[in-house]
Amino acid sequence: MDYGRIDIHPTHTYGDFKLRRGRPSPFGATLVPGGVNFSIFSSYAKSCILVLFQKHAKEPMAEIPFPDEFRIGNVFSMIVFDLDYENIEYGYRMDGPFNPKEGHWFDSSKILMDPYAKLIGGRDVWGETPDWSDIYHHRARIALDDFDWGDDRPLEIPPEDLVIYEMHVRSFTKHPSSQVKHPGTFAGIKDKIPYIKELGVNAIELMPVYEFDEFENSRPNPVRPGETLLNYWGYSTVGFFAPKAGYAATGKLGMQVDELKTLVKELHKNGMEVILDVVFNHTAEGNEYGPYISFRGIDNKTYYMLTPDGYYYNFSGCGNTLNCNNPIVRNIVLDCLRYWASEYHIDGFRFDLASILGRDPRGFPLPNPPLLETLAFDPILAKCKLIAEAWDAGGLYQVGSFPAFGRWAEWNGKYRDTARKFLKGDASAGEMAPRLTGSPDLYAWEGRGPATSINFITAHDGFTLMDMVSYNYKHNEANGENNNDGSNDNDSWNCGWEGPTDDPGINALRKRQVKNAVAMLMVSTGVPMILMGDEVGRTQYGNNNTYCHDNELNWQDWTLLEKNADLFRFFKNCIAFRHAHPVLRSKYHFSNRDYMGSGYADITWHGTQAWNADWSGRALAFMLCGKHAKAGTVEDNYVYVAMNMHWEALWFGIPGLPDGMKWHVFANTGAPTPDDIWEPGFEPMLENQSGLLLGSRSVLILVGK
Amino acid sequence: MALDVTLETKTSASNVKIGIITLSGDLDASTAPTFKTEVEKAANEGAKRLVLKLSGLNYMASAGLRVLIFSKQKMGTDVDIYVVAPQEGVLDTLEKTGFIQGVILLEKDEPEKYEQ
């Protein structure tokens, strides 16, 4: 081959391979003129060998040692020329000390995957049983970045305008009723974009899509003979830079990168952002009994938090803890997120057990965690949403105190807990009020806006919304852990009967509670997030921890759309109402003052009597002044919301409106369908403008115009 | 199965140069370079329309898709690419990977659509 340029001319040979000193930066395998630049870091390795395979081959086709002179600092780098880079897989062997007490686990008999691999083979088709005799399971491949994005770019929707829909890639379309061509894949989601669009959400949050191993800890299902329990949710990363091949209909062709990018592009075209749920708190290598995949054999002591005796700290609850505030590890996290933001046009990230990212290498919480600060101020991530799950399995609970650097939002666990209690009548109006207004008690004191608060009542972890109103207790028997797993503190209420029932009264109450929940969520200041399927009453049959089920416990049943059409309609209109009314989507916390001269404060609180809130009761109402919408920069209607969480109907006196305006009924969950909700803009006028009898456990939303 | 590639160039009724490439067999990493050579030839001959007749193409791997992407880039954004009569599997791949958005798809060979 004519290499053309002298600076890319081979200088070394090894067997038939032509080599040249590589470029240490960037890490990973990068295409350079005529060849591939391989670069990998290890602090403690004495030597390193590049192992090359033909795609899918059992045995390596070559093993090329890095010449000593190719190592700069702690980085081995080498260009290998004339590789058929679309048809190779690569790995490394690292030699160094094996001394677990000192934190070293080097074993040159293991082939290790590049932590920077952009494409990973080995689990190409979901659920296909792996060849356990394979000497190299997760195979690094080289991805090309030639996708044609056209004019696409991240949407940069203001955070306070988002409505997030949390979903699992496979669960969304795997059920036969989804009727998509490729069930359970990125392509399947693409086929369902019209549905998501009709619902009205403008951001989808995907549970982990980084390559993971569904066969990690796989075992026979104790309840369904013949079925296997899998690592279904995927909160156990194998490779941070590579999309899950098994989620792509084209995974078998190695085209998962293109398929995911196509999905992102199509979602953007339809006005929807894509947020990824990312797991940096631990990896799939588990504890000392886990497999060698990459980090353990490359630089165990750098990548994991270790006890003084060399054991793995387990703040993640999953065996190991990534040493996130080690400078090397900080960089891989940063590189990873920058890559997904720039290469995949991802709009935001939700960080699983993010509090771990604020721990020092010995596990102590840092007051000013450098990783969180770096991400907050990174220029490439500058417009990305950064959302923390502000707690970890080691007991660090930081809702309201997560080190935010003016940037980080939080899954507001306190919103979830209080809203659930209020719904069933266990929390007072006074406890609920701050949750409805973006939790100023948690965030305003620090100058953090309402969009800091990601408001949610249900998420993948825990009951679905329908189960939350159908079960008092978790029913996780199918997980095979004697019902010991999953949360015991659900604040759920079965409405009078545990599980499914034919009792029409109980079923009606359950549906009303579901509607109450979404109505409250959509009028709350902050960013609402709903769980996939809640809009059609999805059930997990009382299982609040379905992490291991590739079956109907997780799959979205699309026949529910017809069965619970009233719920879907209710959700859809509530979301549309939120989009239609900027007064609900304030960038700043309410000031409880009239700074627009409208005669009304931006928010006013009421009870069963107008202007007279009873903070200790189960009834609460508030009114938002349309003149104060978006801090007075736009004009909106007035909105009045009354919540009666009492078991009896209550008369609510309604505050008067400025002259010429009338109250109109947008939603009343106490009314039978279809009078429970209206399309925004088509609300009928309220008959008695001074008040109305609101049914038991019901929510009323009025719009004044 | 090997790949057969033929290139034919003609001029349309409206005096636009057209490159017509007929592919049959399997388009994978080992055969993609042959296809790429023909795309380059068509580009060098000044074709402003590229017609890819795919009815005989049984299979397209990632490498084949790369050439399609390459042809779009090589020929320029003002060049229309017609994909003619792809088999279901090939069409499926084009759809899932988004390439279909950048081309004009003809379910059957209708020369009047690209020769006018």
Automatic annotation (TrEMBL), chain A:
Low complexity composition-biased segments: 479-494
Stored CDD domains: AmyAc_Glg_debranch (cd11326), E_set_GDE_N (cd11234)
Keywords, in A-Z order: Glycosidase, Hydrolase, Transit peptide
Keyword tRNA-binding tagged: no
Molecular-function annotations in GO: amylo-alpha-1,6-glucosidase activity
Family: Belongs to the glycosyl hydrolase 13 family.
Renumbered residue ranges of the record's region Disordered: 479-499
Record protein name field: Glycogen debranching protein GlgX
Keyword NAD: no
Location of the Glycosyl hydrolase family 13 catalytic domain: 166-578
One annotated GO biological process: glycogen catabolic process
Organism: Aerosakkonema funiforme FACHB-1375
Listed InterPro entries: GH (IPR017853), GH13_cat_dom (IPR006047), Glyco_hydro_13_N (IPR004193), Glyco_hydro_b (IPR013780), Glycogen_debranch_GlgX (IPR011837), Ig-like_fold (IPR013783), Ig_E-set (IPR014756)
From TrEMBL, chain B:
Pfam family for this entry, one: STAS
Coiled coil: none
Signal peptide as annotated in the record: none
InterPro entries with a match to the protein in the record: Anti-sigma_ant (IPR003658), STAS_dom (IPR002645), STAS_dom_sf (IPR036513)
One term of GO molecular function: anti-sigma factor antagonist activity
Stretches assigned to the STAS domain: 20-116
TM spans (from-to): none
NCBIfam families (alphabetical): ant_ant_sig (TIGR00377)
Family statement drawn from the similarity comment of this UniProt entry: Belongs to the anti-sigma-factor antagonist family.
PANTHER family listed in its UniProt record: ANTI-SIGMA FACTOR ANTAGONIST (PTHR33495:SF14), ANTI-SIGMA FACTOR ANTAGONIST TM_1081-RELATED-RELATED (PTHR33495)
Name of this chain's protein: Anti-sigma factor antagonist
